[in-house]
Amino acid sequence: MIPVDEFWQYSINTYRKKDVKRACLILQDELNANVNVLLFCMYLADKKTAISAEALQYLQHLIQASDDQIKAHREKRKALKTMGGDLYKKALDEELKMERAIQDILLEAFSSAELPMRNTDSFSQAIKGYLLSFDKTLVFESTHIHAINTLAANI
């Protein structure tokens, strides 16, 4: 089993890298990717553990309701940003708690026998398959390929 704090710290340290953050946000904003799923895939690759696109899609399914709640909360937090102050900081803290809860779901599912692990893919193949689950007609643009390659380079 993966220690919860280990994955959280990995996520914080990895996301702090400017190019990783930018790549994650491109994939989130343009293709609906969940940043926690992307970071989890990076974490597993760093630990020399492959995961299939099918497994990533399953994980997304498990977190979808929480992901929708975070998206709504994020929009409210962004609106508070111009106001600054305590309300914005409180909203940011709440969002981080929600992100942490998603990571708990990911870790629990990964540790269970229910996660479909067959046909493990390379990091890039897994991410592309995961992203295609949102839109089967998706054609990856150069910015998307660059973002995926940036994540792979930071493992």
From TrEMBL:
InterPro entries assigned to the protein according to its UniProt record, in alphabetical order: CHP02444 (IPR012659)
Superkingdom, taxonomy of origin: Bacteria
Name of the protein in its database record: TIGR02444 family protein
Species of the source: Agaribacter marinus
